[in-house]
Amino acid sequence: MKTTKNPVLTTASTLGRLLLLVVTSIACGALVAGLFVPATALAATVANDSINMFNNLPASLDVNPPAQATTVLASDGSTIARFYEQDRQAV
């Protein structure tokens, strides 16, 4: 004798397995997304700190002229050039 499967049970079993697959996929997706939360929070913190650092910079810099001549030396200690105030140009 040949046994026949009940089509209602087969359909219910298939739908149950499909539902289990969908639920498992959603759970795995949520777990993987949760792994990126610390990296995203760190990136946001770095971005905010960078913005605050640039906002706290002064609007203009007070540059004092050099008090003495600047001497450019070679690796052996000999003088290559000397820059005095009259040779300097504001850039």
Topology of this protein?
Blueprint: H1 7-35, H2 37-55, E1 70-73, E2 79-83
Antiparallel strand pairs: 1-2
**Residue windows where pLDDT falls under 50 for at least 5 positions:** none
What's the helical proportion of residues?
A: 40-55%
- Main sheet strand line-up: 1-2
Sheet-strand content, in percent, reads 5-15%
How many domains?
1
Specify Rg, calculated over alpha carbons.
Answer: 37 Å
Overall average residue pLDDT: 84
State the end-to-end distance.
Answer: 101 Å
How many DSSP-defined strands?
2
Broad shape: rod-shaped
- Look at the helices and sheets and give the structural class: mainly alpha
How many helices in DSSP terms?
2
Order of helices and strands: HHEE
Major sheet characteristics:
2 strands, antiparallel
Protein name: Glycosyl transferase
GO molecular function: transferase activity
Keywords: Transferase
Organism: Arthrobacter livingstonensis
Quick structural gist:
The chain has 91 residues and is mainly α. The protein has 2 helices and 2 strands. The protein has helices at 7-35, 37-55; strands at residues 70-73, 79-83.
What does this structure look like?
GO terms for molecular function: transferase activity. The chain has two helices and two strands. By secondary structure, it is mostly helical. The chain has one domain (9-59, 66-87). Strand 1 and strand 2 form a beta hairpin. The mean pLDDT is 84.
Keywords summarizing the entry:
single chain; 91 residues; mainly alpha; 53% helix; 10% strand; transferase; Glycosyl transferase; transferase activity
